[in-house]
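S.,

Sequence below, as promised.
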Amino acid sequence: MESNISTCAICNGDMRRGVGGSGFTADCSHQFHFRCVSGSLEISSRQACPLCSARCRDLPSSRSSRSTPPPPASRVPAQPFFRPKEPRVFDDDDPLVRAPRPLGDRHHGMGSTSTSSGSIAVSLNTHCEYSSLPRDATHENFAVLLHARAPGSGGMSIADTPPRARAPLDLVTVLDVSGSMVGSKLALLKQAMGFVVDSLGPADRLCVVSFSSGASRLMRLARMSESDGGKALAKRAVESLAAGGGTNIGAALRKAAKVLDDRLHRNAVASVILLSDGQDTYTVPRRGQDADYDALVPPSFAYTGDGYRSAPVHTFGFGTDHDAAAMHTIAEATGGTFSFIENEADIQDAFAQCIGGLLSVAVQELRVDVACANTGVRVRSVSSGCYRSRIDEDGRAASIDVGELYADEERRFLLLMDVPRARVTSDVTHLMQVSCAYRDMATGLPTNVDGEDAVVLRPSRAARLERSAEVDRERVRLEATDGIAAARAAAERGAHEEAVEILRKKQRAVARSAVARAGDSMCVELSRDLQEMRARVADRRRYELSGRAYVLAGLSSHAQQRATSRQMSCDGETTGRRAESGRGTTPISTASFSYMTPAMMDMLDRSRRSRELKSKERPRSANY
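The prediction came back faster than expected:
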């Protein structure tokens, strides 16, 4: 049974008459104990609410509460969480843990490397659409797949990885505590945040920001160390969360940006997790196609597309009442991902999957460069999703700004090229040379790697050609993604039958592809995903309820080539899918399985085992 007891917005103590002293309600509707609000006003002379800074009349003076007796000792919690007055500048972050970096045997610029999970550098491979082309013919739009893979964790789980073996993280969690979060939603959020705190290491730092009608920084950016009390502080901050008020996402993100912009020290990796179950009515009062959702994104968070991100914002739509378009826009503008948590009980798993990636960042500032090797070869186009690509005016070179990669994470880019006739004496045409530059998170050093050149044979006679399965798979994925975007556009204008038909055609095309007929697992997952979308865009009610969020989460996943959380509901075979992780088998019910990394699956496995353990302990404790 949910409690309706009001709590003081400063100490989170009970506001019932006779408990904790007399109470006071400000003009903004926030409630406080007289002793708490007057103590806050002793520090600040502003006639404003200590929580949301709204101007208030008749705030109590410190004298008005001095006669109030203190609460009975038995009613005072052993370790209360007091929200201190926020400083003007958030430069009170904990200093970093300066661990020595391992100086292993690194290979820089010595050709393509192994693609195994224990590889020590980014691997670059190419796959030509056909292995050979007739010597006496030109070929337009010849496809070449460029495949990049980040170095792996060597089979170690995140829990077993020493802190200095990975890049430490600065994480700001921005949590919706509006009135709609009351009850089980808030309890599930606290449980999920407890798992996040437990998963962070002593070199990682965490700041918790909560928001409703306004936004509050509940704690400084603190190291998650047991010995220094950082984890205990974070857990008290999370337990202090109380639901009430409106939904001001804009103010919340500005607060998070200030935390990261003002910090004195900077860990190598920084990120923001934003969770909301509602719709911003403060910064973006209008919804729909006329809404200016970009206004929600602070300037310092906006991704410029040059491979460097100040801090990607990974957004989570909680339940079916959130503004999916706003959350997707925020993620897209900052280089983050958008996830849809339809089943509220899955919030911890969704956070775990995201944290698994953030705690395994292996590469930053990755840029892939392509140079045409033959004088007649030209690059026509690069399909790079959300990653900015450039082609020189003469088509002789191209580049892709990828940015950050998690351990074992992969990116595939499809290039279309013009290939000239070959000389009579030439048996081979060298199409392009590939290389990359990035910052290695294991050493902190700039690294350059030469990849595998793209080469095609040029026989004098045309032979029976077989298309590369790698190229075919990527083409299928790109065409399906284009179909998803077109179906979304149709659904937004109310053409739901058209949206269903678009998805049906794309699903049929996936099933008829050569790679799907060969049993390719990505194609199987993609076909099921398209089937799920067909059901969710079939009419306005279903689209508004869950279809928009599900489709946008899918587009976010495909654009980034990164896993997002969204649950399928099609059939038992899908939801029963199991994936091998380093510590056991984890049932995967998300539609982004193809992009899951071992670190994500490991953290997801830990989350589900943690939930199972708590569910077993709950009935046992109820018997005592």
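Residues 39-46, 61-78, 101-118, 571-589 have pLDDT under 50 and may be disordered.

Coffee later?
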